[in-house]
Amino acid sequence: MTDKAISPLRQRMIEDMTIRKFAPKTQHDYVQRVKHFAVFLGRSPDTASFEDVRRYQLHLATSGAGVPTLNQSVSTLRFFFKITLGRADIVNHTQFIHVPRKLPVVLSPEEVARFLDAAPELKYKAALSVAYGAGLRVSEVVALKVSDIDSKRMVIRIEQGKGHKDRYVMLSPHLLELLRAWYNAARPQGWLFPGMNPVNPMSARQLRRACDTAAQMAEIGKQVSPHTLRHSFATHLLEQNTDIRVIQVLLGHAKLDTTALYTRVATKTIREIVSPFDRITAKLREGAEPPA
Q: Does residue 162 carry a catalytic annotation?
């Protein structure tokens, strides 16, 4: 996109995204992807044909772009053509790539305890403990404010989580004790976990670095990220026989199918299932003649 030729078009697209309450980062990413498409075309993207869109997708695929990049480009182009340009049939000329979902990495309760104990400092120990203790996404952890911790009702308010939805999650007494220790030590104002400049919250990148350090110090061989703690939270709840619909609400999942993935990694639950082979064997033994 060149500013001279495309500014009105870009402005219209931004307005369309603003109407739909797209987050600032999402708007920025969409604009950048349309700019890349325009560079590929060598002209204004609103003059593109469906064959141009196909060529661009082929260009991305053959240049080594990963599946997330390809799917993000499809989402952007569908929005641009369907909403901003009113060319809804573009959907028929773009395809998302569906890949099998991999099972998430899950830590055992013992590994989680070692991991949190190895956190580099109190601030990060508290933040990572919230990620596990309440099952939060990294973006939700760093966006927490002091006022989101409701010790009277023993809940944490998650404001505008994924899908622009508010929800409440439980606040365990032990987690509250840790958060109070952090508050008394740092006296954060506004953001619960402020960044280097207290005006801003701690960045997701900062928390991921602390996570890497804790995993190394705890000598955990698995690939660990803040999201691993969320996976572990859900799996451990399932192994405690918590209703899967309750877990869905706590995680903020729109679909139960997403939460049901954890039934495939809840090994304690799997181990406790009685195999039909054992039942048959038991019956055969009951009916067998006693040895002479």
A: yes
Query: Looking at the predicted structure, is the pLDDT value of residue 290 above 70?
Result: no
Examine the residue annotation and report whether 12 is marked as an active-site residue of this protein: no
Question: Which residue among the candidates 123, 167, 230, 236 is catalytic per the annotation?
Answer: 230
Architecture category of domain 109-270 in CATH: Orthogonal Bundle (1.10)
| Residue spans in the chain of domains classed CATH 1.10.150 | 3-93
pLDDT digits (tens, 9 = 90+) for 116-169: 999 999 999 999 999 999 999 999 999 999 999 999 999 999 987 566 678 999
Q: Domain 3-93 adopts which CATH fold? A: DNA polymerase; domain 1 (1.10.150)
The pTM of this model reads: 0.68
Distance separating alpha carbons of residues 115 and 211, to the nearest angstrom: 8
Active site residue 21: no
**pLDDT over 50 at 286, yes or no:** yes
Nearest-angstrom CA–CA distance, 141 and 156: 11
| φ/ψ bin of 190: left (φ > 0), alpha (ψ from -120 to 50), beta (otherwise) | left
